[in-house]
Predict the 3D structure of the following.
Amino acid sequence: MKAKVKGKSKFVGGRCVNVRSGHGSKGHQLKNGKVFAIGSYESKFSVESFQDQWRSLVYDALSDLLGELRESTSESELEDRVASQIHKSRVMERFYEHVVQGPNASLVNHSTCFMCLMRAPEHALPCGHIFCTPCLKAYGTDLDRDTIAIGACPLHYDAEFRSCKIFLKPEQAGVRVLTLDG
């Protein structure tokens, strides 16, 4: 990194670790905390310059996934079942790989399904993760109209998991609250 030291540009071995707000009071700092130069925040990255590349990367990734889906789907298999397996192995495994380690190991959310990140979760698995009905159906096996068996949690890779049956409420059934007045 080039840094201005007493009005002259000088190459300094190392990379500044401060975020934009940290430059005002600290200047440029190395990982060990040593200040090696005074100066404002500088970044070659900007959202505007990366926007076209980002769109291209997303488009290419989605095209690859769609191609894999077309190659992997046979006439006897349901497309959504194959898509859920591709989603699990190619997308979710990478996405959650860092979540299952460290302080986030027991990460559980009761407001968003962690598989699709779109719907409210309704069905708890023995491991504590909670999924929405469409994701549960995608990763489980239908036993009958209202029962789904799931043999592994989609978010636990190489972990012990007790298979379970999840009983779905009929679509027309509403939520009821039992009150006992005494």
